[in-house]
User: Fold RNA polymerase-binding transcription factor DksA from Halopseudomonas yangmingensis.
Amino acid sequence: MPSKSKKSSMLIRGFVPYKEKKGEEYMNENQRAHFAGILNTWRQELMEEVDRTVHHMQDEAANFPDPADRASQEEEFSLELRARDRERKLIKKIDQTLQRIEEDDYGYCDSCGVEIGIRRLEARPTATLCIDCKTLAEIKEKQTGN
Assistant:
């Protein structure tokens, strides 16, 4: 039995890393199912967070007579809404990625066509670029200031 620290390192964000079999074809049905499961779980967690935020804002919405208290509450709500907006965009990206899995277009770099790699996709399931193309894109972005 693995030690507690080793056991916890085997689970990354609630999933077990994919174990490739020798000679296994890249992005086969098992691998696509593995990533679809990761993405669907991630999407579900984000949707639950959205629901919690809505309920929290409804429960906590109070008309404080003190302007400072009201401002604090509005700032808190503003930060939560900004976070939910980022998550909404992420949910859209997850949906697009799930569509790519269905269309057998997942796991290959949009720029050069090379395999992105299982470990990179587990770290960033919505990745559309291999590490080399992503690195180049980030360098170009820094140079142009966009």
In short: The longest helix spans residues 67-102. Residues 1-12 have pLDDT under 50 and may be disordered. Residues 13 and 23 are 27 Å apart (CA to CA). The radius of gyration is 20 Å.
